[in-house]
Every structure is written in C-alpha cells, then in structure tokens.
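Now for one record:
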Amino acid sequence: MIWYLRVFGIFVFVFFFAVLGQKESHLERTWEVKLKPDQTQKILYESFLPKSYRSPTVGEEWESKSLGETVICKTIAVTNTPTISFQIQSKGFKHYQVLNETYQLDTTENGVRIFAKLDIQPVPNFLSKLLFLFFSDADLNHIVLSKEKRF
C-alpha cells in the first residue's frame, strides 16, 4: 500500500517541476499564397489592425484582439530589403506575458512564401504556467491557422 503513495508522490513531484520548468513555446510554420508581396503584407497587417490603410511604423502601438482578449500590439522591426519581414509584439494577455510574431515574405515563381515564427511566454505564476503547459501550443497553432485562413 505504501508504494502507491510513493509512486503518487513521484508523479506529483515530476508534474510540479514540469509546470514550473515551462519558460516559452515556439512555433514555426511556412505556407504559400498566390498574391504579390505587398498584398500579402497588407493582409497580414490587417489581421492586427483591421481596416488599416498603411503599414505600422517601428515603435507604433495599438490595441487589437488576439485569442479573445484585448491586447496592446507594438511593431518591433520592419525590413523591406531584400525580403519583407516584420515583427509584432503583443502584451496584455491574462496568462501570457509576451507574444512575439515574426513574418518573413519570400517571393517565389507563383506568389509568396510566408515564414511565420511565433514565441510566447507565460506570466510567472503557477496557474498561468499550468495553463501554458497544456494550451500554449494549441493557442499558437490557432493564431497561425487564423492567419492562413485569411488567404
């Protein structure tokens, strides 16, 4: 009977350190669209800033909806030569500290190849890290799929 308690104790110990050991999660995805690079960039920016008529400048902040929460987005970096790339940072989630989204647009024969890299970090408390352990990859996948569906 005592060995049940030992096995359960080891399970709780390992689970506790698995939850506390979570630092961040990454997702990289590539897909192709049959549009021009500037059209593709505009559609991606519109996912952050609906009905925007211009591209945001570096350092510009605005409010947006992501994962059902109102967050503050900020443009961190923009590069237009030789390939178009930009990075958007989102803050203000209840259980996530920072979400960084980096998109790189490479011109191909038939259109544009989009390379997306997403990084997310949890808020440093036990409940947030517990949710992060189970849902961080699913949330990142949901974000990327919503961007892909725009095309």
About this structure: The longest strand covers residues 96-107. The radius of gyration is 19 Å. The first helix runs from residue 2 to 20.
